[in-house]
Amino acid sequence: MMNKTSIKNPRMGQDLFTYLPSEIILNILSRLPARTTMICKCVCKPWLDLLVTPEFVKSHLSKSVPGLVVFEWKTDPNPHKVVEFVNKLDFNCHEHRWNVVFSFDLPFYGPVHDSANGLLFSCHRDDEIFVCNPITREYIRLPSPLPRIYPKPEIERLTYGFGVSRSSGEFKVVRILSAIAGRNDRCDWQVYTVGTASWRRVACCSLLEYGGNSKGVLLNGNLHFLGWEPYSSRVSCLDLETELLSTFSPPHPSYPNTGRNLSVLGGCLCVCDMTLSQPVNEIHIWLMKEYGDDESWTKEFIIHKVGLEDRLWFVCPIKVFEDGDIIMGLEFRQLGYYSSKTKTIRKLDVSELDPNISSCAVVYAPSFLPLKTYAMENVISF
């Protein structure tokens, strides 16, 4: 028997979305993969208008599947790939199962350093600082930071962090200029809130030395920096909502002469130690099981540097799979894959053109947040 609705309106099946409330359409579209949703923007003007509303942006971001933005070290063009994982990478296969969602070229040179709620942060030099959304194909070039408040010292280190505050949802760039002049260490902390078009100094009294591998790490609305003092290290934690600074202790290294860096792994703050001298040739990965409790540091992984050159100084865990396999950055210019089964690390080839091209990656979840909502900024389309 034919349905009465079909008798009254035989085109109901074809024009189903015409009869649905916008709330239901929003719910459906927010569950689609990023690439499919980008295509939906071209379907009709009502959908185009819907996909830029704050409600859709928030709903889609909450369902976005985190993947990686992979950058290939080439001068021209400047290619980036957004990749997702099927389940894991098969370490024993010759071809890794990269699921490339989409690719894009940035109109400025430099790798992506960080990501927060779908926005990418890139800093090539102190006067080339960018916040970008590859989904909306928009970017903001930040103005030059404030001039230093002290004469230029012989030794100066610069580090950046990028994140989003918990309550207000404001995106902020943090810049730390560490000057080392004899015994008088000085730090100049500056914050840029996206949408204000200006830098300002914040009162962060810290005598720690930053720089090198201590880029900002975002977790729970706080930016974390690994700072150094004579013979030890500390973690500085800047609350992006209140802009108040606190510090806590990282785990005590198992061996002397150890290089270490900070990251986020499996939703926990992570410290990665790497021995820099023989005969011990290991990577130790610590996780803070209870956030904010420096007594909860747990050594989760001990990895032997089999297959890696002895002079490797920097390892950054990026993603851990359920079976204990780990994707990691090596020396900022290479990706590695640790197999918990074979207990070895293998370099990953993510280039489709040249296996000798170096690559780096950051965790990224796509967002449809339009940068043009920041009226104070000079937003450029690409």
Walk me through what this model shows.
This protein is 9% helix and 42% strand. By secondary structure, the chain is mainly beta. It has a five-stranded antiparallel beta sheet with strand order 4-5-6-7-25, with no helix packed on it. Strands 3-2-1-24 form a four-stranded antiparallel beta sheet, with no helix packed on it. Strands 8-9-10-11 form a four-stranded antiparallel beta sheet, with no helix packed on it. A hairpin with a 2-residue loop joins strand 12 and strand 13. The protein is globular, with a radius of gyration of 23 Å.
- SSE string, helices as H and strands as E: HHHHHEEEEEEEEEEEEEEEEEEEEEEEEE
In total, the number of strands is 25
Overall shape: globular
What integer value in Å does the Rg equal?
23 Å
Total helices: the number is: 5
Summarize the structure.
With 382 residues, the protein is mainly beta. The protein has helices spanning 4-8, 22-29, 34-40, 45-50, 54-63, and strands at 67-72, 79-85, 98-105, 112-116, 119-125, 128-133, 138-141, 155-164, 171-181, 184-193, 199-201, 217-219, 222-229, 232-239, 245-248, 258-265, 268-275, 282-288, 297-304, 315-320, 326-330, 334-339, 344-347, 359-364, 379-381. The strands form 6 sheets. A 5-stranded antiparallel sheet has the order 4-5-6-7-25, with no helix packed on it. The chain has a 4-stranded antiparallel sheet with strand order 3-2-1-24, with no helix packed on it. Strands 8-9-10-11 form a 4-stranded antiparallel sheet, with no helix packed on it.
